[in-house]
Amino acid sequence: MAWTTPPTFVVGQIPTAADLNALLRDNMNETIPAKASRRSGYFASAGTNALAERHILRATAFETKDMTMTSTSFASHPKGPSLTFEHSGSFLAIYSARLYTVTGSSGTGGWCAVAPASSEESASLNYSVRNHGGDDALFRAQAQHLFTGHTPGETTVELQYQVETGTGRFAQCELIIMPF
Amino acid sequence: MAWSAPKTWTAEANLTASELNTQVRDNLLMTATAQATSAPSWAVTASKNAVAMRQIKEVIATPQVSTTSTSPVSLSGGPSISVSHGGALLVLFSARIHRTSDMSAVYAGPQINGKPKGAVNTSTAIASAVTGEVTRHGGHILWYDLGPDTDTIEMKYWVNSAGTTGVYAERVITVLPL
Fold it and tell me: Which CATH architecture best describes the domain A54-179?
């Protein structure tokens, strides 16, 4: 079923059953009330003249996670957090974590970072939650990133972790996704 | 084109072309489905009986910049972003931010260029009073009652007192227009 541009009727024209089915039934079935399935959702563009119902999702990994890296790249943790969802090519990730570098020290030690990653876009320091040094303080930071240009469909996003040197300590990590 | 309140049909009334055009064609063209494009966007209310597809946008400025200004200034790379909206904007922003010496706090925050109601201020800015660390700070602002418009949102930077240098990098603005 797809949207059909509503035609202009002229005087004397008698609408056929096919006209009404395409113009009324099929088009009505593409509108928000027809597609709404449950509360607290919203509608995003799924293409030209197409909408899809979306819902905000949240995942957390509250436990303290120590990660010691041997290379400066982002890595997954078994606890995630991660979320799997449907989208039409873009989605907004909002994330926060408490983090510090256990063996680093301010100005001389390494930094640690948290950023979201999908199968089509690696985690990046450019928008990572990031703390330098530590002073043994679980500092909370928050950031966001709009993923765009992804293949529409189901995607999994997870928070990933990076430490410049030493051990990074991460806790109370939260990931919120708004799919579009 | 505008929404017409659906009429109540009566038995044996003549169905005219004009009625079909206003009651069916024009009202269908007012739905979000008719306005949807392939751009990343969401359906929001625009006014009474009107919806609009608003485009969600993000811009990142990665180079490191600095200022000693005690009033909000623009810095190279912005970031800045232009969005169309119906009168409200949810803006999420973040940056790596620190000061170079143990002086006063340093700030960054977005403003709506040319709109007094959208002026940047310390109450909603991200702030740091940490020296030499590259920690990211994030904040958010909900602006509303702006009136429908296309506006430019730009990050501004300043320090609390003279003699302080604020340093900023990897600056991000994400806008959800309503």
Answer: Sandwich (2.60)
- Please check the confidence at residue A106 and state whether its pLDDT lies above 60: no
User: ipTM value of the model?
Assistant: 0.85
Q: Do A125 and B41 touch (CB under 8 A)?
A: no
Q: Token pair of B130, please?
A: 């940490």
Rounded Cα–Cα distance for residues A42 and A36 (Å): 9
pTM of the shown model: 0.89
φ, ψ (nearest 5 deg) of residue A38: -160, 170
Q: Does B20 touch chain A (CB under 8 A)?
A: yes
Under the banding of pLDDT at 50, 70 and 90, the label for residue A157 is very high
CB distance B128 to B105 below 8 Å: yes
B117 in A contact zone (CB under 8 Å): no
Q: What is the pLDDT of residues B13-32, one digit of tens each?
A: 888 999 999 999 999 999 99
Beta-ladder partners of B83: B151
SS3 A23: helix
Q: Which CATH architecture has domain B55-177?
A: Sandwich (2.60)
Non-local (6+) Cβ contacts of A107 within 8 A are A132, A133, B132, B133
DSSP string, A120-171: SS---GGG-EEEES-TT--EEEEEEEEE-SPPSEEEEEEEEEEESSSEEEEE
Tokens 């928050």, located at residue: A142
Break chain A into its structural domains and give their ranges: 54-179
